[in-house]
Design brief:
By secondary structure, the protein is an alpha/beta fold. It has helices at 2-12, 22-31, 38-47, 62-71, 143-161, 180-191, 211-219, 235-241, 250-264, 282-294, 317-329, and strands at residues 15-16, 72-73, 78-84, 90-95, 101-108, 113-116, 120-121, 139-140, 167-170, 203-207, 225-229, 268-272, 297-302, 334-337. It has two domains: 2-73, DNA polymerase, domain 1, CATH 1.10.150; 78-344, Aldolase class I (TIM Barrel). The protein is built from eleven helices and 14 strands. The longest helix has 19 residues, at 143-161.
Length: 358
């Protein structure tokens, strides 16, 4: 009797329709004596128009809308609250269907708007300089939850800045490669001409460096760009600030990046923060120059954004200037990026669900 009850309960739980491929949607309609082309209409409503209500699918008959409602649900996100920085940056508290919360950030400049997307609730890694790393990893985001963040920020970009979203960076909460399947599935939908249709050249995936999965991306022939949160080209220093690096040493990471470039011919971006007393020595600079000479790359030096409970401080500007001078002398492209949204804890490394979204 108890087994029978649970079978009934399981059957009553509707599947999220966005977990189905177009082919599976076609099979569903055919199995209910409906034309298979209805799947294409539903697919367009879900992935191109971002509709979360079957009743709004107006080119479907009432019969077919009711059929969908009887069998499926749409577990969409909600922007629970938002904060706006003095520089125009918008930080969103994104509530998921199970009431967990992640944060996403819309970053405007005079010429473009960039969506900074989260991939996990919390984080799988333990970087000492990142507020998100202090949060327990609750779960991976589904592909549709990642996709929904992009759609929501595209709408915000049009509303507040009168232009569509131009770029996407996977630099929000979580380690994207620890959610490999869902992140790539989301990017497939983001770049699908029948869905959001963004160019993969406008997408950057940022990883702290998981060698095996960097190789897998190369094997999977991805079209988007790769950034690596490096912060030191010396193993002993990297282990100090990114303890997980003991499992993924620089030697393996470098080999994986060489493999990536050999197969994709895509230059790698190294993200790099310079801290006082951590990586501010001449040998730190020399190590980074040596690594960049080995792998076709550019360096993005990032302003450090303080987080609660950390005593780490950005190195003096003279040290940053020394990095820039050495890289420039070696003909390695380098930029120094000042942070956006610091006043609302929306800058790199600051996402920690401080917005109260209960």
């Amino acid at each position: 009797m108890r087994f029978f009850y649970f079978r009934i309960l399981e059957a009553s739980v509707k599947k999220d329709i966005r977990a189905l491929s177009k082919e599976e949607l076609q099979d569903f309609f055919v199995s209910h004596d409906a034309p298979s082309f209805k799947a294409g209409q539903v697919f367009q409503w879900l992935w191109q128009k971002g509709i979360h209500d079957f009743e709004l699918m107006t080119n479907l008959s009432l019969e077919h809308r009711n059929l969908l409602k009887a069998h499926f649900q749409i577990k969409h996100i909600n922007i629970d609250s938002q904060q706006r920085s003095a520089d125009g940056t918008i930080k969103n508290a994104v509530k998921l269907h199970d009431h967990l919360v992640v944060e996403s950030v819309l970053i405007p400049t005079s010429t473009r708007t960039t969506a900074c997307v989260s991939s996990q609730v919390g984080c799988s890694l333990d970087c000492t300089f990142c507020a998100t790393a202090a949060l327990k990893r609750m779960r991976n985001l589904n592909a549709d939850e990642i996709y929904d963040q992009v759609v929501a920020m595209d709408q915000q970009s049009k509303l507040y800045y009168q232009r569509p979203l131009s770029n996407i960076v996977f630099m929000g909460m979580g380690e994207p490669l620890m959610n490999y399947k869902n992140v790539l599935a989301a990017i497939d939908k983001i770049t699908d001409s029948e869905a959001l249709g963004m160019s993969p050249r406008r997408i950057i995936l940022s990883t702290s460096g998981i060698p095996k999965l960097i190789r897998k991306m190369a094997d999977d022939k991805v079209k988007f760009g790769l950034a690596v949160s490096l912060h030191s080209a010396r193993q002993e220093v990297r282990e100090q600030i990114m303890p997980f690096a003991k499992k993924f040493p620089l030697t393996e990471l470098i080999e994986a990046l060489e493999y990536w470039y050999a197969y994709t011919k895509k230059q790698i971006t190294f993200e790099y923060v310079v801290w006082e007393g951590v990586n501010d020595l001449k040998e730190d600079i020399q190590a980074l120059v040596g690594l960049c000479r080995r792998i076709p790359s550019k360096v993005n030096i990032i302003q450090y954004n303080p987080i609660d409970g950390s005593s780490m401080k950005q190195a003096h500007q003279t040290i940053i200037d020394a990095y820039i001078a050495a890289l420039t002398k070696a003909r390695i492209s380098v930029t120094y990026r000042r942070s956006r949204g610091v006043d609302i804890d929306a800058a790199c490394g600051q996402l920690a669900n401080k917005i109260d979204s209960k």
